[in-house]
Amino acid sequence: MIKRIATGVALSLGATLGLSLAAAPAQALELKLSHFLPSTHPTQTVFIEPWIADLKACAGDDVNVTIFPAGSAFGHVAKQLDQVRAGVVDIAHGLTGIPRGRLPRTTIIDMPFLTKSADSASKTLWGLYESGTLKPEYKGLKVLALHAHNPGKIHTRDKPVNSIEDLKGLRIRFPSLAISMMLKHLGASPVGLPPTQVYENLQKGVIDGTVFPWEAVNGFKLYEVLNHHLDASVYTTSFYFVMNQRKFDSLPGKVKGCIDSLSGQTLVNKFGPWWDAWDKPGLEAVLKKGNTVTAVDDATRAQWLAALKPMVDEYLAALKEQGVADPAALYAEAQALVAKFEH
Description:
By secondary structure, the chain is α/β, with parallel strands linked by helices. It has 13 helices and eleven strands. α2 (42-59) packs antiparallel against α9 (253-262), α4 (118-130) packs antiparallel against α10 and α5 (177-185) packs antiparallel against α12.
């Protein structure tokens, strides 16, 4: 009798515990996403936040993504690649050129006068990745997208730049090694500065000008301290949007499927229209102020690029020193893709 009572109690407790476990809600999936721009930048408000919202709508509300922008614990641009590879953050959006030398194949898109739009530059990068050319640089990472901004212009405070000769002697802030080499080859003095310090240094006359897309001219209010703008589609800078591969592999199948559906070519195709919209306020601001804007035609761009051949050869040689087996073939592949997407 005593044994039967004990057995009954055990069964009762087991049933109760089973019901309790069945009723317990599934634990939410927590992901960390970092980027290096202010939380008010369109990169977060137009790109990242809607991407997260679409992920939650697809995978379920129990997927939570915490954003760490500039100024946060994980918002330092020079640390993002290491952090996402190590799994300190799960997803990161960062600059391919920082730290310098980490993604040399990807920075082929930084070559001067290569692209004329964010759309063609972004699609070229993704084409290079899908062909396998860039994949060795992203070991341990799930590449969600590669993209670039609209071509940067040459902006100056006092002296207008209408030809390559006009650059001689000017102190110009640069964003990448390729553009630093370009400026130096054309007789300018390249100056390395974070974007946030350009306004003050222009205002004080420490630098004479800068290269930026229109978006940055508006975002950093540089139109207030600039007067002349050469719309020559000089360069672009590239970005990565990547996820730690181990983290991705550990996710439920549904979540992985949702991430795949929202990334890759589907996401890359959006950057061209986004950058066009982000650039518009910058151009409108300089025109409203009465600044001079000089456009450069394709023939002139081709002449400038021809004059830069020694610099291009030097940059390709530098890529070889960084472990790129055939930089000339990489450059040719990039040029072919750009031609495909710009026609």
